[in-house]
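User: Just a sanity check before I run the rest of the batch. Below are the structure tokens for the first item. I only need the designed sequence back.
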């Protein structure tokens, strides 16, 4: 038995039943392979878990997967670490290979949400080639369209509780006590990416590299433009409309 596998005898009956019911519900859902595209702070991170649960998809965040592969010393992880140690970018082939590996998991049976990849047209083409070998393709690209000025207000007001990942916003979702997590009372931090100067360079990179990816998928008529400046629950409604 693999080191990280679970002995079912140790799982409580309610947990087992919950998972069983979830899988039965999932078995009736249509397969979906989705790519989420949008600049930093557009709300992809808020919508991903909602979409994942609603449609029983696996959420593939390439940064997390890359770190996990390196930690697990998988063949691709070893190659990725070699590149990182030299200060090089991990090649598109390796990243697509790691996505390919992940798609073998049972949790990805109904499809996936790709978030943070592809960032370039070359990556989109490599992703398409890999999916083609599996006899599938990207079904829908959700483009979280939003004005840069709205993003600046959103992002620079963001604060995070590092241990749990809970996020707050000085204007839209402030903690009960400024700078303090509501649940644990621990201090909140601002990520170094969430400062105006870093945001400016990230947005420039997004417009330069990733906007052409939207054009690439638009030619395949699979892009849905979402009004990402709206409140999260309104964006969720739009997402459900697009995916129904």
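Assistant: Here's the designed sequence for the first item:
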């Amino acid at each position: 038995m693999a080191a990280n596998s679970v002995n079912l005898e140790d799982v409580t009956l309610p947990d087992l039943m919950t998972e069983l019911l979830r899988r039965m519900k999932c078995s009736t859902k249509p397969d979906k392979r989705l790519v989420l595209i949008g600049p930093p702070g557009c709300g992809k991170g808020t919508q991903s878990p909602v979409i994942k649960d609603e449609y029983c998809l696996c959420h593939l965040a390439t940064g997390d997967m890359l770190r996990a592969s390196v930690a697990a010393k998988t063949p691709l992880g070893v190659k990725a670490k070699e590149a990182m140690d030299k200060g090089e970018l991990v090649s598109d082939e390796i990243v697509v290979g790691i996505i390919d590996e992940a798609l073998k998991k049972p949790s990805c049976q109904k499809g996936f949400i790709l978030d943070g990849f592809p960032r370039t047209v070359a990556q989109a083409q490599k992703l398409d080639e890999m999916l083609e070998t599996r006899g599938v393709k990207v079904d829908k690209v959700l483009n979280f369209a939003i004005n840069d000025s709205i993003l600046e207000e959103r992002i620079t007001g963001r604060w995070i509780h590092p241990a749990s990942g809970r996020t707050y916003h000085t204007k839209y979702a402030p903690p009960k006590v400024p700078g303090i997590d509501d649940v644990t009372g621990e201090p909140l931090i601002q990520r170094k990416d969430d400062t105006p100067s870093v945001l400016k360079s990230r947005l420039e990179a997004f417009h330069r590299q990733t906007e052409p990816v939207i054009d690439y998928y638009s030619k395949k008529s699979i892009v849905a433009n979402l009004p990402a400046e709206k409140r999260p629950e309104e964006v969720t409604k739009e997402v459900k409309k697009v995916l129904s």
